[in-house]
What does this fold into?
Amino acid sequence: MSTLLEVEDLDVHFGRVDAPGTVKAVDGVSFKVEKGRTLGLVGESGCGKSTTGYAILQLVRATAGRVLFDGTDLCQVNKRDLRRMRRKLQIIFQDAHASLNPRMPIGDLVGEALDIHGLFRGTARAGRIRELLDMVGLSGSLFERYPHELSGGQAQRVAICRALAVEPELIICDEPVSALDVSIQAQIVNLLQDLQEKLGLTYIFISHDLSVVRHISDQVAVMYLGKIVEMAGKEEIYTAPAHPYTKSLMSAVPVPDPDVETQRQRIILKGDLPNPANPPSGCRFRTRCPIAIDECAKVDPPQYPLGPAHWAKCIRLQES
It folds into this structure.
């Protein structure tokens, strides 16, 4: 498969460059996503997952680095060309109701993107909107209804419908199911997978729910305080996590077997996420790491290869 998206040394800093108090929300992030595949981006709140997604779409401008989409560096594209390229890149937000204009009926919400890009007009426009609604499992009778009349699951389907309207290649899914009931979450995740198979879509799926990420992702990247600390295929990262932060996350995932669950050892992290405006020296995870040594404060760990497409950043890995 060919690479659709390549992110190289991406930085997103808020504040003056290298000035005291500058928040390094994303700091040296690199990864690749192949066409038709899904990268799961996981980590606790405040680690920079959503900011990474926004920077890829240029909703937040990068401080440094490159975002190569189909060979074009989006960080260097002017506003006119970027607007044209945004047909190929879309986003689904966490709170569907907040992302839908409450004053617009569903038909116009979906049709707005068609109007902006001049894709369908007249009767063809209405037909396309109904086709899109049907594609996400919604009735055409919702055409004239407003967002406040929809359930959470219906609103999220409209948000997905709107993202699909311009026939994108890459969709950033920014915690698209975290605000929904568990039964509805499964329906939305299955819908996203069906659409991916049918339309050949590529996803970056941002979430803190590791069970959902395992279900939908092909690759998983684990973020902590602006950096990716481990990346692997989903089976490797769930069955053989290497970084101590990844291990702590995996130990918190419920197992639907009471015998296994009672015998598992939870890894409880101490303290809170450090201030991104004043991150720890060396390894950023060392202040909460159960196996940290003095050297961890001095060395920013490089990537240690652990297998095909599997690496982690932890100096203790060189001892094993």
The chain has eleven helices and twelve strands.
